[in-house]
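Hypothesis: this fold can be encoded by more than one sequence.
Test: take the structure tokens below, design a sequence, compare later.
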């Protein structure tokens, strides 16, 4: 009934319906164009970042081999003297280790006291941007204090002079995107 007060004649009402029908594709088209514009920001070819120079890859793999050998002293050579490691959790970043000697001590404790020989880790290298390596790590082990542990994290390694000087471990939480 409301439309009879706004559009008093039958012709006005027909023109309003016609205008609505004509404008719908235009409005939808503008929306589709805007959505298409947003999609063009996503680049499908990520190879520019997924290729790691062979000399840099050798440094990374040496550190991983030393870790798998459970040798904190050898691993210490792959980090700078002022190495820092941050754990980023929902409550923000926390300094986990500062300095090469502290890293060795922490790894000795981890290898000897908490994580038994059954430690397994899978590393998914996502790419490298400048001096920053980006990877996902999935660690599994039986902890003497926590029981069976499986931790997935996003790792950022920053390199300086051929060694790691900062490491950022971001531990994800449940996300609305997981549902």
């Amino acid at each position: 009934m409301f439309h009879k007060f706004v559009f008093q004649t039958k012709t006005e009402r027909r023109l309003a319906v016609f205008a609505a029908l004509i404008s719908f594709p235009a409005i939808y088209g503008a929306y589709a164009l805007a959505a298409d514009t947003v999609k063009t920001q996503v680049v499908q070819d990520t190879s520019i970042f997924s290729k790691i120079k062979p000399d840099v890859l050798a440094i990374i793999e040496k550190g991983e081999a030393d870790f798998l050998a459970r040798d904190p002293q050898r691993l210490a050579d792959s980090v700078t003297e002022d190495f820092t490691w941050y754990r980023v959790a929902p409550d923000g970043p926390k300094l986990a280790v500062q300095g090469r000697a502290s890293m060795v001590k922490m790894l000795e404790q981890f290898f000897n006291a908490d994580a038994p020989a059954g430690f397994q880790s899978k590393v998914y290298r996502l790419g490298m941007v400048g001096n920053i390596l980006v990877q996902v790590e999935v660690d599994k082990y039986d902890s003497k204090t926590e029981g069976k542990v499986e931790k997935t994290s996003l790792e950022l390694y920053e390199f300086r002079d051929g060694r790691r000087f900062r490491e950022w471990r971001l531990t994800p939480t449940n996300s609305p995107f997981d549902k």
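The chain is about 40% helix and 35% strand. Strands lie at 79-89, 92-98, 120-129, 132-143, 147-160, 163-170.
Hypothesis status: open.
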